[in-house]
Amino acid sequence: GAVVSQHPSWVICKSGTSVKIECRSLDFQATTMFWYRQFPKQSLMLMATSNEGSKATYEQGVEKDKFLINHASLTLSTLTVTSAHPEDSSFYICSARRLAGASYNEQFFGPGTRLTVL
Amino acid sequence: KQEVTQIPAALSVPEGENLVLNCSFTDSAIYNLQWFRQDPGKGLTSLLLIQSSQREQTSGRLNASLDKSSGRSTLYIAASQPGDSATYLCAVVIQGAQKLVFGQGTRLTINP
Predict the structure, then answer these.
(1) In this predicted model, what pLDDT tens digit does every residue of B25-48 receive, in sequence order?
(2) B58 closest CA partner among B37, B45, B74
(3) Does A71 touch chain B (CB under 8 A)?
(4) Does A113 touch chain B if contact means CB atoms closer than 8 Å?
């Protein structure tokens, strides 16, 4: 149990276009999901905390109008990179926090989405 | 501000050895600590979760300990195998917050 999926696993887009990434908890409900960004050979940088039914909380320095987050259900959060530019190219990873069962409050991570903006 | 440090940054050992990865954090007021594994180009796999009230957790060849008062955790890997090669990350959840604060990771290579 506790599987998190992301779609797509990789995407290549032209500069100026918008890209939507989905994060789903497949076998548990997650009122809170998290979006991270990871540059090569670096650790994860938290971008925002996504709460079901309310606005996301963004970390300092992350543009909320550029990285739109929607958490419409207990199993789905989406991250939309608007007007993407080459500097937005990165590995985006989501996680979901499990609130019930033996692994209470444990976070489970998706496989990541590789975004390349040309 | 909570800071998490992992030592060493990289480690290379021959197959079969037992090894220890270290993680330290500056603020002892944590809710829990998690150890993860990340393979190149992949997401994170949760290895062990230690709640703040616990001292250690075990899963197979892995054992993680937590000393909250000294701000330290160790991940012990017994009888290492080439398949254990990956980057290992530790992260803490601060009390009163939801988010994980990550260390920079230890890149582990097990040589056959």
Answers:
(1) 999 999 899 999 999 989 999 999
(2) B74
(3) no
(4) no
